[in-house]
Amino acid sequence: MANTADISRGMILKLDGSLYTVIEFGENKTARAAAKVWAKLKGVENNRSIEKTWNSGDTIYPVRVERKDYQFLYKDDSGYNFMDSETFEQIVVQEQLIDAPQFLKDGQAVSVLMNTETELPMSVELPDKIIMEITYTEPGIKGDTATRTLKAATVETGATVMVPLFVDQGEQIRINTKTGEYVERVKN
From its phi and psi, is residue 135 left (phi > 0), alpha (psi between -120 and 50) or beta? Predict the structure, then answer.
């Protein structure tokens, strides 16, 4: 059995029937009382953030998680459909379990975190940075690169990203999937 000394960042714990990811943790020691271990936790299913405190040495219940490579196939009424890159098995995942569904395009490689106890997907993570083509944006003005002014651009998945004025329609850009922000223009 695991105890509070085994807590680490990114670990998934079972608390009151729900799964939580450890975002941050630490230990408070005082001269008179026993040490306490605290953690900031984020819900896997519900995205709720909580703080939890244990006495040092208390039992915790980590959940074993496996990261598998999947490929996005399509979206339909049942959810988002992914295929295992090794076994070619298909799974359906609901939108709330995907970290940036607006940037999913056909054939996109993703990582799926699977709960090894239930064999159910817990979350879907896109790569940190992806390349997208701009399908629509207002034309840029030549020489307008001195300021950090941004304009809206629609990418191939239909998502809107704020880009610098010099970026034009038909160009490819790199996007940070965690923040949804423009990173750089990609030269072919």
Answer: alpha
